[in-house]
Give the backbone structure.
Amino acid sequence: MKTTTVAPTLSLLAALLLALSLGLACGDDDGGSTTGTTGTTGTTGDGDTLSGYFTDLQRIFEDAEDATNEAEGPLNETSSGAPLDVRLSALDTYLAEIDAIFNEAIGQLESLSIPAATADDHQDFINGVSVSVTVGSALRNDLTGITTDEQLDDRLARFDSDIDAAVDKADAACLALQEIADTEEIAIDLDCED
């Protein structure tokens, strides 16, 4: 019973982490040609701006994936048969780390100047990640009141339901960004969930 409830939640979190990795990629600003200092357009207004933007997306995605895998490790190592307080502690630690990563990503996304062609989808992605932060924080806050396996199962089921819309929004934005890259013949793979 416990394993079946926790496993889908972890799968949803993994999907959200994938979306987050894209967010971290969008948030990289190394001073290159992909960003300007004001507005929502890049500095050159041509294909080089889009190409650089998507190159940064892919490069940072790979780094972010490593970081999220590291954060996930201790939670995955916690046995479903471990005492409830041990599982709650592992989940709390994991959610705290993810919360920090997501909030950093949102800050980077909000301060980034982006090519005009990606602006709407970029904002949709930020909105999806922002909702996920709220949902994850609510779950983390509720962990302190959980005293039985049944309460944990119920709360994780509610989390699954609450997070679906955020994951769908972030995934749709990722796919839209990938479509822009494909249309512009920019050879990157954002590895979006579909």
